[in-house]
Amino acid sequence: MLRIISSAIPAVIVTMGLLLTMHLLIASNMTEPKEVEEFKIPEITMDNREVSEEFDTAKVEKPEEVEEPPPEIPEPEFEAPDIDNSIAIAPEVGVKVNIGAVGGFSSDGDYLPIVKVAPKYPARAASRGVEGYCTVKYTVTTTGETKDIVEADCPNRIFLSASIKAAKKFKYKPKVIDGQAIEVPNVHNRFTYKLAE
User: Fewer CB atoms inside 10 Å of the end CB: C or N, the chain?
Assistant: First the structure.
């Protein structure tokens, strides 16, 4: 009981103090507001101005007539280079080269490219305006496909993945010696990446 009484006395004192403070604040704010001096804002007036339009009506002088036209440039003569267009490029899809006794390559010869696919320009390099080149090396198999494709010289590695993907789609006429197709290792191919102007 003593504990309740000892805690109730300070609570009553604090409550009475708060009530007295609130009463004093309210009483001090009950006075009438003081009169404020009024003043008039002057009106803004604009002068009447006339708006006029002016046009440039100066005459253009006629250029002097040319006495003689310039001489005509002769058409250049080009010598047509000797290009052998007899190699047909096979379509990329579904190209298979079979080596065998029937329908195979009967004559000896070096490997020749049949299909070379252009690489896709990497979007990250195109957005940054990056140009460059990438050289890969691979082995041409007995069926004319490519395998073991690795980097040979690729200063900017942003082009490496696109170059390897394109080289995987290459097709060759395989190298034939004594009627047998053989693999050709260390074949290099350089891809140049240049943005259109």
Answer: C
pTM, entire model: 0.45
- The more confidently predicted of residues 64 and 116 is 116
The two tokens of residue 86 are: 């007899």
What type of residue is 11? A
Here the tokens at position 176 are: 């034939």
User: Which residue carries 């995987």 as its tokens?
Assistant: 168
Q: Tell me: pLDDT of 67 over 70.
A: no
Report residue 65 as tokens: 């007539």
What does the pLDDT read at residue 8? Answer: 86
pLDDT tens by residue, 130-170: 899 999 999 999 999 999 999 998 988 899 999 999 999 99
Q: Is 134:151 a contact under the CB 8 Å cutoff? A: yes
Question: CB under 8 Å to 173, separation ≥6 — which residues?
Answer: 97, 105, 109, 111, 112, 113, 114, 144
Alpha helices in 29-156 (DSSP H): 123-128
CB within 8 A of 155, min separation 6: which ones?
132, 133, 134
Map tokens 């074949």 to a residue: 187
